[in-house]
Amino acid sequence: MKRILFALILSGLVLASATVSTAQIPARQVDRPLTLKQGVVAADVGVGHTMTDPTESTDASLGFVYGVLDDLQLGLSLPMGVDPTFETNDPAIVAIFRMHRTQELEAGLKIETSIPVKEGSAAELNVGAPVRWRSGPLRIDTGVVLGYALTDPAQKSLQIPIGVSYNLNEHLAFQLNTGVRAPEFEFDKYIMPLGAGLVYTLTSQGMTRGDIGVSASFPFFMQKGNVTTTDFMVISVGGRAFF
């Protein structure tokens, strides 16, 4: 009986802590911190439909992120193919440590590694230095990412991502994503993606409950020789819930 009572009290404390933490999540995308508050859990789900000529495919993903500390979050993503055939792809573990924080600027360290479970795949390691700057309704995310794939031969890359978020109002934000990726550190072989979308924040009783969004992207929008590719497009729908 005492153990049951202790478990109920402990559960109540955990739920109360999560409620307080969730209440501290900003509704505006521009105000979101680089890492989740301690004790907050985010569950992600997404579906992407790749439109190419002459074939098309559909992929999905599940993800979970946990705020270990205010300045440290750990995440797990589980990608999978849905159509034309169902298959599980390599999951990834992501850690973000925030090392600098002011009202306008945040910076940290991001480490992401994939776990090769799919036949023929190889482990990948990405180490990045994310930077987030905000002013008014505008937020810019950038930084640098070094990638290393344990293939034969090994492959390395340098990436500079650029993400822009602009809150049209308290709940709705426009987002633009681009950047440049240099395989083998050779910028004359660069790849520049381009994507845009809208994100709507769900709130109730003064707390941020989650986000839903839709986007369209061109993963290989511009490549070596300034060649523009628009016949490879991905339409995505996704959501995030906070607990």
What keywords describe this structure?
243 residues, single chain, mainly beta, 1 helix, 62% strand, 14 strands, 9% helix
Number of helices: 1
Q: Please outline the major beta sheet.
A: 12 strands, antiparallel, barrel
The amount of beta strand, in percent, is over 45%
Helicity range of the residues? Answer: under 10%
Low-confidence stretches: 1-20
Q: In what order do the strands lie side by side in the largest sheet?
A: 1-2-3-5-6-7-8-9-10-11-12-14
Question: What is the alpha-carbon Rg in Å?
Answer: 20 Å
Along the chain, the helix and strand elements come as: HEEEEEEEEEEEEEE
Q: Give me the count of strands.
A: 14
Mean pLDDT: 89
How far is it from the N-terminal to the C-terminal residue, by CA? 29 Å
Principal-axis shape:
globular
Task: Classify the secondary structure makeup into a structural class.
Answer: mainly beta
Task: Note the topology.
Elements: H1 2-23, E1 41-51, E2 56-69, E3 72-83, E4 87-88, E5 92-101, E6 105-114, E7 124-135, E8 138-149, E9 155-167, E10 172-183, E11 191-204, E12 207-223, E13 227-228, E14 233-242
Antiparallel strand pairs: 1-2, 1-14, 2-3, 3-4, 3-5, 5-6, 6-7, 7-8, 8-9, 9-10, 10-11, 11-12, 12-13, 12-14
Description:
This protein is mainly beta. The protein has one helix spanning 2-23; strands at residues 41-51, 56-69, 72-83, 87-88, 92-101, 105-114, 124-135, 138-149, 155-167, 172-183, 191-204, 207-223, 227-228, 233-242.
